[in-house]
Design goal:
The protein has 448 residues and is mainly alpha-helical. Helix 1 (8-30) packs antiparallel against helix 7 (98-126). It is 81% helix and 0% strand.
């Protein structure tokens, strides 16, 4: 874990603190949405771009991470990511309108988009194989613990110092990340050999952005435009690959990728549904809505490195299968009994599904990348992180659209119905994930 120049654990923590800050700011802002809707005179579909715009910025930057990692040193990328994040936090801390707030979120998204694959690439390339599961657990814990703190952090600061203070308190954390990174990541000479495929990058950026807006607006013309641009990306990408799409020829990789992405959809979808339902539907305060998310997310975060240890000792199948079953059970209970669940029983179902998240999430990423040969690990890492952020943004946009539409059509109980419909969608996707993992585990057991 320590070479002549590298301090791997410290480097992972440094990159992880940046990723942690990204998830923290994302989940802490969700509890401010009712307040921001009033302050900026917008609805749920408009204010969700505070999260969706940020995730979209990450989804646009992450695809080029394989190119960046091959052509620039890790230390240089780390510094650039940190400076982008600091600039975004600084801008949002003084934002006086929604446009400035969204621009700052985009800058933070660029920083996080570089930092996330950087953290996992350090683990994949610098940590020994026998410790990789535990290290992936530690890396995932830095981002998994953020949802535990985020809503509580956001709710407390919103109630005391105002929503802009949510950004102020991140500055010391980012500066600590910068200091740790400068000390633990050595300067390395990297020869730039690849040309950057601007055609593939621009068509992918426009295609993903348009697709997300099409989902949010339920617009068929925009959907057609997004498909045209994504087809354009495919042809540009064939000549000079920006993303190595050949990894999708591996069916085991495809099925495990689906299971991994559904966890991202669940985490981001529920982080929108539950705080808004609690505040608008159950009339709790922002602080109470934040505290609601705390127990489950803490348990999930603590289980992440423990499940990584289990992965190293007994393999991936048992902890992942147990985790998916627990998460599916929690979502089904929440979906079936949503109208009659009080604050505490709703929290119990959330804790159960987060136990499943802690057991399965980081191990799914490890085993998914493990299906690829080593020379494709950077490509797989880039693709997984790209899809992870886009799915998170899409899930937020979809549940926000369901929420807003149902509230509009059913004023009396639309908040409850919209929330329940969103949970039912997530539960269905998780059941599909369970089926696909059962199919994929045969190949995993043969490989073991």
């Amino acid at each position: 874990m320590k070479t002549k120049e590298w301090h791997v654990l410290t480097a992972v923590i440094a990159a992880g603190l940046m990723s942690f800050s990204g998830v923290l700011i994302e989940t802490s802002m969700n509890v401010t949405f009712p307040h921001l809707m009033s302050e900026f005179n917008t609805n749920a579909s408009g204010i969700q771009w505070v999260t969706t715009g940020y995730l979209l910025a990450i989804a646009v930057i992450v695809p080029i991470s394989a190119y960046l990692l091959k052509n620039f040193s890790i230390k240089k990328l780390f510094i650039i990511a940190n400076l982008f994040f600091l600039a975004g936090v600084g801008l949002d801390s003084i934002a006086m309108n929604l446009t400035i707030l969204l621009f700052g979120r985009v800058l933070q998204g660029i920083g996080t988009g570089i930092a996330l694959p950087l953290m996992f690439q350090i683990i994949l390339m610098k940590s020994p194989m026998e410790k990789r599961g535990a290290m992936m657990g530690i890396g995932t814990m830095t981002t998994a613990i953020a949802p535990a703190i985020g809503p509580t952090y956001g709710g407390l600061l919103l109630s005391t110092l105002g929503w802009r203070s949510i950004f102020w308190f991140l500055v010391p954390l980012l500066l600590l990340s910068l200091v740790l990174g400068l000390r633990s990541i050595p300067s390395e000479t990297v020869v730039r050999e690849d040309r950057f495929n601007w055609g593939a990058f621009l068509t992918l950026m426009v295609g993903l952005s348009t697709l997300l807006i099409a989902v949010e607006k339920l617009s068929l013309p925009l959907f057609v435009i997004s498909v045209i641009f994504l087809i354009g990306f495919y042809f540009f990408n064939r000549r000079l690959p920006l993303l190595n799409l050949h990894v999708f020829k591996n069916m085991e990789f495809d099925m495990l990728t689906y299971s991994f992405l559904i966890y991202q959809a669940m985490l981001l979808g529920l982080s929108f549904i539950l705080p808004n339902y609690l505040q608008i539907g159950m009339h709790t305060s922002a602080t109470e809505a934040g505290l609601f998310m705390f127990p489950g997310a803490v348990i999930g975060a603590i289980l992440a490195p423990i499940s990584g240890r289990l992965f190293d000792r007994i393999g991936a199948v048992k902890p992942i299968l147990t985790g998916i079953v627990a998460s599916a059970t929690g979502l089904l209970l929440m979906a079936l009994f949503f109208p009659v669940l009080n604050f505490w029983f709703l929290m119990a179902t959330h804790v159960l599904l987060m136990i499943g998240n802690g057991l399965a999430y980081s191990n799914l990423m490890t085993v998914t990348l493990g299906t690829l040969p080593e020379h494709e690990s950077a490509d797989g890492n880039s693709i997984l992180n790209t899809l992870q952020q886009f799915i998170g943004a899409s899930a937020t946009a979809i549940v926000a659209q369901i929420f807003a539409t149902t509230v509009k059509t059913a004023p009396n109980n639309g908040v409850m119905l919209g929330s329940r419909y969103g949970v039912i969608l997530l539960a269905t996707l998780m059941l599909i994930s369970l089926v696909l993992f059962v199919i994929a585990k045969k190949g995993m057991q043969q490989r073991a």
